[in-house]
Amino acid sequence: MLSLIKITAQAVYLKRTLFNDPIYGFIAIETDLILQLINHRFFQRLRRISQMGLSSLVYPGAHHTRFEHALGAMHVMQKAIEVLTQKGIAISAEENEAMQIAILLHDIGHGPFSHASEKILLKGKTHEELSLRIIQNLNEEFKGALGLAIQIFTNSYPRKFMHQLVSSQIDVDRLDYLKRDSFYTGVTEGNINTQRILNTMHVEEENLVFESKGIHSLEKFLLARRLMYWQVYLHKTSLAAELLLVKVLERFWELVNSGEEVLSPTHSFYPLIHRSSDESLSDSVLLHYLTLEDSNILHLLKQWLGHADFVLRSLSKQILFRQLPKIKIQSEPFDTKILAHKGERLQDRSISQKEIAYFVFSGSISNQTYSPDHTQILLKNKSGKPTPLAETIDYLDFNTFSKPLYRYYLCYPKRHFSL
Amino acid sequence: MLSLIKITAQAVYLKRTLFNDPIYGFIAIETDLILQLINHRFFQRLRRISQMGLSSLVYPGAHHTRFEHALGAMHVMQKAIEVLTQKGIAISAEENEAMQIAILLHDIGHGPFSHASEKILLKGKTHEELSLRIIQNLNEEFKGALGLAIQIFTNSYPRKFMHQLVSSQIDVDRLDYLKRDSFYTGVTEGNINTQRILNTMHVEEENLVFESKGIHSLEKFLLARRLMYWQVYLHKTSLAAELLLVKVLERFWELVNSGEEVLSPTHSFYPLIHRSSDESLSDSVLLHYLTLEDSNILHLLKQWLGHADFVLRSLSKQILFRQLPKIKIQSEPFDTKILAHKGERLQDRSISQKEIAYFVFSGSISNQTYSPDHTQILLKNKSGKPTPLAETIDYLDFNTFSKPLYRYYLCYPKRHFSL
Amino acid sequence: MLSLIKITAQAVYLKRTLFNDPIYGFIAIETDLILQLINHRFFQRLRRISQMGLSSLVYPGAHHTRFEHALGAMHVMQKAIEVLTQKGIAISAEENEAMQIAILLHDIGHGPFSHASEKILLKGKTHEELSLRIIQNLNEEFKGALGLAIQIFTNSYPRKFMHQLVSSQIDVDRLDYLKRDSFYTGVTEGNINTQRILNTMHVEEENLVFESKGIHSLEKFLLARRLMYWQVYLHKTSLAAELLLVKVLERFWELVNSGEEVLSPTHSFYPLIHRSSDESLSDSVLLHYLTLEDSNILHLLKQWLGHADFVLRSLSKQILFRQLPKIKIQSEPFDTKILAHKGERLQDRSISQKEIAYFVFSGSISNQTYSPDHTQILLKNKSGKPTPLAETIDYLDFNTFSKPLYRYYLCYPKRHFSL
Amino acid sequence: MLSLIKITAQAVYLKRTLFNDPIYGFIAIETDLILQLINHRFFQRLRRISQMGLSSLVYPGAHHTRFEHALGAMHVMQKAIEVLTQKGIAISAEENEAMQIAILLHDIGHGPFSHASEKILLKGKTHEELSLRIIQNLNEEFKGALGLAIQIFTNSYPRKFMHQLVSSQIDVDRLDYLKRDSFYTGVTEGNINTQRILNTMHVEEENLVFESKGIHSLEKFLLARRLMYWQVYLHKTSLAAELLLVKVLERFWELVNSGEEVLSPTHSFYPLIHRSSDESLSDSVLLHYLTLEDSNILHLLKQWLGHADFVLRSLSKQILFRQLPKIKIQSEPFDTKILAHKGERLQDRSISQKEIAYFVFSGSISNQTYSPDHTQILLKNKSGKPTPLAETIDYLDFNTFSKPLYRYYLCYPKRHFSL
Asked: What's the DSSP call for residue C277?
């Protein structure tokens, strides 16, 4: 009669560390190693790196950080493991811990303002590559204790679903950040029913699959993600702000490289700008990179408010006092004539063509809601054979839906722009 | 300098009636006439009519009623009027009140368990027709005070947007019920951002239009609606329960018509079953209909638990004790052989073919997320000319999306079914 | 290193039944026996018994039922067990199931509209006594499987904390109903942080204690409870409605006992009114009681709208059409002169003194927020020795706070009252 | 018949600016002047000043800023004005705007990390004094347009309720920050029902009063505030962090004053440390103060990680890497012997007595939930005469409740503390 009681204390809890979280209530830390990783200064640094870059200029509540997101994603992983375990999927204690570590550290490579600085600070390195490097460093420090987590993170562990939970079309990373970003921005349309999606997870032939009864929640997930992209992540005003940040950093690089600006070796960018030109990234530069946080950028912007170079000065002011440029978005590239025309107004003020390019510029952004080739979302049907989601939903035009959507932007100063 | 202060008391508030609402906090009653309509017994009756029929058998929290929904929709109408007024659309006090009344009474024709009894109790009359009849009766009682509300309700008032707010692809009815049903069922994916949608409403050439910046919220709205249909409104278990309710009422009608059951004139169904066969609906039958509530049906089902007719008895038991039949759903009609096969098991128990049809039956349901022809959702573009939504969203296959989706169901008793 | 991994599947989950709940998301059913109890018709009946009686006349969203509350309280019990287990308190699988059953069935004795009918239907029996009787009946049906649950329910099991979780100053019953009633009424002040309170639970010498760091949540809990009492449970308008319900039932009893009304043996009240006068309650009367639901009362009220007795008729109308009497509340008993004075107006209409008492009446209600004697809330201090809460909180005047608060009410018809 | 329609567009809305807010959904900007003030760099600066100082070290979600709080409080003011206007209180357009400005700017004087730096940066000036100075400066810049707002802010306007809404026991400031801080910390017990409290507001003889039916919400408000104080604002861990911040700044001041550290005139603290010693605060120092934000402090702490002075170095590390000291709280002052004893461990490491005081220190904090003398909360009774809340609530021991509660703390390094 009595068959399904689930919970037993396998080990005595020496001390139960809980983090407060406005979304999940409490987040439990389940092993000592995880607690040590969270307390590590590399991870504590994430407390001071905004999850959403400069989006708080549009969504004033969006000041949350990579620290909270990493903890939240780990919490969702715990819940996913709980569901799968209850469905009879064997997950050992070692695997359990490694899955949690892999997701906890997946974003540890992010720099100041997350994506906003990624293209500049260590040009040529994505935050994923940096994360892996840092995890490997931590693995040495913790004497190999992160080996399994690294296998899962790099998808070299044979049980594919563990990696798929960390990184795939529907992973615990996205399950947390969509919910979290929706919460802090107030864009409630992006809220997803994590619990319902988790409840339909299963594993078949070591692949993550979803029970077909959850199909509407999956649809909703895809649409929520799409909506968050266009309405929040690529919101034209915060896009403008992030583009300015890229521009101001580029200008600074330019000034240094041209010798107009001489960096003191104690300047926070010195090791990044003066690193040896070969591809490899030295440990010492990486360690320096790990000291950079939002406040370093803010501090520079504030200093630059009084800088001799009017480009640096003006761009900094635009960001700090939210005097953002005009930005237009369209689905076709902008005609170069328009670009030239918008630049003309500045020429009157005797600004060189090269400098104009810091104030009038165009480019493109894209978003791909669903990627049909790699790591398809698989549905578990009664018949048994997992079916790709794209073959199941008829009303979505997956050809269109799966195509990356490009948008083209044009930025230029407002009419009464003062330098 | 001072230009935009919005609120002034146009009239002294003698008394401010507020309704508590778990979704909006408080709902204000803005005119005396509205308060009198709410206090009318026709409207009070809605307190005892479930909004979602028998869905509480699947979603135990879904016990909310037509009363709350009607008040909620009126509240959303108030907010829509507020937004439009602030955008410079002139709405007179009379129109304002009439718009509120039209939506307040739009569902007053619903019978017990809302849609579940609609097909049976006054066969041939939809709840919309009944609502109009009742509003007209009330108009007489209130000496013509509802004339403008009737014009809006029947779309004969020239300012089309007023009707469109009451009834169209995105109206305040849907804005309330999606949110409300999502709240009470816990299916959070159906939650929509009413405020954001309202904020993008505008009026152009007396038609309701939506500013194009709201496009993602509109997409989300359509998908939320679709999701609520398949996951909640047409959930197979509550569909089974509602089909049983139809069956049990049909059986009762049959017994009465065949003379096997003799109704006392005091029986709550007497005036409905014995009404004159012509098309028109007499006021006296209508008034009787207006005494019927969920409890009348429940009371009969409970009585029928002890009824001599085993069909009536068994179906009542299945509903009341939630011993629901199996139900299968597929996108193709069921083969008549399967139907026959499922019926065979009952034949062993010497049940006639006609009676078997109460336990084994099939049929179809459909849902059309977006209707391309009538009352298109219109987007207001910068260029000015309103564009239909279908021409703007590229990733949705509107041909498929706009087609009614049919699903076919087959109901039959569980294996250990006891009559 | 690896020490704290918590979750293992002790047994294969044959099938995982989940209930949707708007508050907790999903509620899991953990054993077969529990599932069978939920499916039992005694328990299914709770789907049709309002948790909050007639409160929906004041808080229109408050249509939730005893069914949801019982499941919700069981869910909170599961969480409490989880916390205690993680803190090293050994709870066997049998105890775990029994604790869940005890709380699941704790309210199974409630009659129509919960407390509203309690004083009338089986006079002299509280719902707790009836619950126990029904659990004992179920125990026989399930061949003794509920023995341990009964011990816990009746506080005869030596591990006191198990009973204390079911019934004490802070039990899972209250943790669920405060949260649930707050949710459905929209009185957000009654919302409590269940998770935070659960997290501070511990067991010392088999008694339930709370870690002292949770003291503010406990204070908040006491105040939330107090607020819900005065603002919701004893709201004067819903009090008036419930008093009317008592009055109308009393009137009916009176008419039957005086022979003015003759009951058919099929009348739903027949077995209750004509039961033998001795104290004991026969099984057959109990079984009949278990067929009564809200709809039985509603059905009678609706019938009585056309009853010859004007008292029955008028009171029914007042409830059904929400034409409620005036009610005054004060902290001193009402002077009998006022009562007489209010009655005089009715005398003009030639109503007898005895009948007047159905329309003009007074009485008292009380609420005791904190009971200092029995089952004190105990705080676990670092020193070890549990301390009663009352000795720890200095700013609350526990002498006053612990005293039952009495309020006196006076009901009388509105001025333009028509019989 | 038609009497209560409330909303009319008094003026054409040229452009409707809305801010996204995760708590209220949208916040509307109602006049041009308000929009200009929000866009002013003094106000934009609040985007980078944490509302809750270093509390995010305990509540990781608490990264919200003074910017959001100021907008939120203005929104609550709009709602309060709406309620009062509907109750017939005449509020002119000028008063309306001035009330909004007064609350919008009430916290504009806050420095980095809000209260944490208040005691150090401009010693002797509270943030309220600074706010007034800044508002006066803005008034000059806006040519006297803020005159009425200043009267309200300084309580020199005869209509007292306007100031009381800005600053009293229950003002819109508290209504916003309790709700907001509860939201971001996840301490849901601090959530209050703003709408319910607003709905009971009224004005009598130009004083703010509360209708007596709202008494339970007021009780709840007081308790929520008390709970937030002890559980959140004075949480011992974030208290420890803020005390460290004070200590590290004090140390820096000391080093500069003793000449051990020489400040460059471009150092962000130079004008603050080297300002003339007289009481008055020059405009130039004030303007410099207005350039300081959280990032300035963070930048210094990060620099100090490599500072020659081990005190500066160690304290900075403790904050940035969250290696916080032990902190004990009790209701009696700590014995100086304990302080001496805790210091001894450090003496072994040859640290001077003066330096030890940066690592081992004690002090007191206090909180007064309800202040009985000034600006009593007044209840409006039916009799008419406003009654102080303290005379109405019997169960709260107002003598205790109104007394400031003192707590004494003792901070000292953890056992394995490394400098």
From this structure: S
